[in-house]
Amino acid sequence: MRVLLVEDEPFIALDLELLVAGAGHEVVGVAQDTTQALAMARDQRPEAALIDVNLKDGMTGPAICRTLCFDHGVRAAFVTGNDEHVPADRAGALAVVQKPFNDRQVAEVLRLLDGRAA
């Protein structure tokens, strides 16, 4: 599965990148803000995305998620330190992973995004 990471904290992004690759998936890019995320979605055509809610350009994760899910057909999950900022409708996301996360949680959400039961 081709996965886009939308995360502005370098160490968290690297950890996610290693976990995604370790689970046998391809990381197609790491975006730090809305502009990068939407450009990478257009250019790289990911199948899935792991999205932080609060990025360098503000609380833009839900808007990014809506665009990726509804306009690009991407299956998404939020990875956030504050799940109170996730909208009630999850903005189209299939799951929410609370930071700090562990390997098992990320593996489960990747299975879910890949269409296999978690």
CATH superfamily membership of one domain? Response regulator
Q: What is the mean pLDDT?
A: 95
CATH topology-level name of one domain: Rossmann fold
| Sheet/helix structural class | alpha/beta
Q: What's the helix-strand series?
A: EHEHEHEEH
Portion in strands: 15-25%
| C-alpha geometry | globular
What proportion of the residues is helical, as a percent range? 25-40%
Instruction: Please list the strands of the largest sheet in the order they lie side by side.
Output: 2-1-3-4-5
> What's the gyration radius in Å?
12 Å
Oligomer: single chain
> Architecture of one domain, according to CATH?
3-Layer(aba) Sandwich
Q: Tally the beta strands.
A: 5
The CATH top-level class label of one domain = Alpha Beta
Largest sheet: 5 strands, parallel
Count up the helices.
4
End-to-end span in angstroms?
15 Å
What low-confidence regions span 5 or more consecutive residues with pLDDT below 50?
none
Which key features would you list for this structure?
alpha/beta; 5 strands; Rossmann fold
